[in-house]
Design a protein that fits this description.
74% of the residues lie in helices and 0% in strands. The chain has 190 residues and is mainly α. The protein has one domain (2-186). It is globular and about 45 Å long.
Length: 190
């Protein structure tokens, strides 16, 4: 029963906004009011450069990784692990500490995948890198990697609960990227 406490804890960890914290520490403008207005790594790169963006990306991935890794180490059930994965991801999108206005979730979804299984994380990141090498568009690469993530979960981990969770994460990521998808369709996404 105590393992169910990991779910709200994962949400709270996911609610920590790396973008806002990094920008504050580095003396940069609040990412919610600059660039795209999205508190994510891509927007932090726009307003603060590659170093600030890389730190934000790492922070967003780590906050997805840590709760899942702790849950894995404590051998929680598949259902609880799936809920921890989803809670950390949703925490990033709808952070309680920042008026429920968060990022799009790509880095955090990568972090949770790495926590589930290192080979899953590697498969997703390899898909992103290969896609980016071909198309040179970060958002498209993220969407391709995300779309394949549930397939990778099924093939690598073989757990139905986690597969369904990653399918749900993919749907949410696609919805959160609807503006990017429209730009891709219009040929204006760069």
């Amino acid at each position: 029963m105590i393992e169910w406490l990991f779910i709200p804890c994962a949400y709270l960890v996911g609610s920590i906004s790396s973008a806002i914290i990094v920008c504050k520490i580095m003396g940069l403008p609040d990412p919610r009011g600059e660039g795209s207005g999205n508190p994510g790594a891509t927007n932090v790169v726009r307003i603060g450069g590659k170093k600030a963006g890389a730190i934000t990306l790492a922070g967003d991935a780590i906050k997805g990784l840590l709760p899942v890794l702790v849950a894995q180490l404590l051998d929680v059930s598949s259902l609880v692990l799936s809920a921890v994965v989803f809670a950390a991801f949703i925490g990033h999108l709808y952070p309680i500490f920042f008026n429920f206005k968060g990022g799009k979730g790509v880095a955090t979804s990568f972090g949770v995948s790495l926590g589930v299984d290192i080979f899953l994380g590697l498969a997703i990141s390899a898909t992103w890198f290969l896609s980016y090498k071909i198309c040179k568009i970060s958002s498209l690469s993220a969407l391709i990697a995300s779309t394949l993530s549930a397939v990778y979960v099924w093939l690598i981990v073989g757990d139905l609960n986690l597969t369904l969770t990653f399918m749900l994460i993919t749907v949410i990521l696609l919805w959160r990227h609807k503006t990017n998808i429209q730009k891709l369709l219009n040929g204006t996404e760069g």
